[in-house]
Design a protein that fits this description.
The chain is built from three helices and eleven strands. The protein is α+β, with helices and mostly antiparallel strands. The N and C termini lie far apart (74 Å).
Length: 196
């Protein structure tokens, strides 16, 4: 196209296309900013906002399971795994009583589900603090329940609170009670914590 003198005219500018192009370059910037904000919120949640276990747990009834003799818990940190309604669990003797646990004299016991609250792997009792520090990047002076799948750590002495790794929620507690059978005292499990 040319003007009346034969000189070429510049092409007409499509203002709508220009406005669209102006906005399109902003989309990757907004997406990157949104992703960064989401990452920061998740990092804060995982590292700084792990809630404590509730001091007054509610339990849903389950069929009674005989965990074992109280004699199996001779020393602090002795642990006995068991299954409650198809769910792998563990009972642990602690040095101090915890909410949701049971005490018989100087013996303080607590029961926990062994299903990690992050992605449902099985947690195990790890007794060596140096192993916990090296393998799970968490410094402690006592045994912990640890998840080898994604390196979450739960503190039984804090009622199963998640203290390290990607898990945020505490382990569900198991309701325990002590029953006397003839000359033996038996530990029984009959309920599972319901989340608040």
């Amino acid at each position: 196209m040319s003007d009346e003198n034969g000189a070429p005219r510049p092409p007409e500018v499509d203002e709508d296309r220009r406005a669209l192009a102006t906005w399109l370059w902003r989309l990757p910037v907004v997406a990157a900013a949104g992703g960064a904000a989401f990452g920061l919120v998740q990092a804060y949640r995982i590292h700084f906002s792990k809630p404590a276990a509730t001091p007054h747990p509610r339990f849903a009834d389950r069929p009674v399971v005989d965990v074992g003799s109280l004699a199996a818990f001779a020393a602090p940190w002795d642990a006995v795994p068991f299954t409650l309604a198809g769910l792998p669990c563990v009972a642990i003797r602690l040095r101090e009583p915890v909410p949701g646990g049971v005490s018989e004299g100087e013996v303080h016991l607590a029961g926990f589900s062994r299903i990690c609250t992050h992605l449902s792997c099985i947690v195990d009792m790890t007794y060596d603090p140096e192993t916990i520090a090296f393998a799970f990047n968490h410094r402690t002076d006592r045994p912990q329940l640890t998840c080898a799948c994604h390196y979450s750590v739960f503190d039984p002495a804090s009622a199963g609170r998640a203290v390290s790794g990607p898990a945020v929620r505490p382990l569900p507690r198991v309701r325990l009670r002590v029953a006397r059978e003839a000359e033996d005292q038996r530990l029984l499990a009959d309920g599972l914590e319901v989340e608040a």
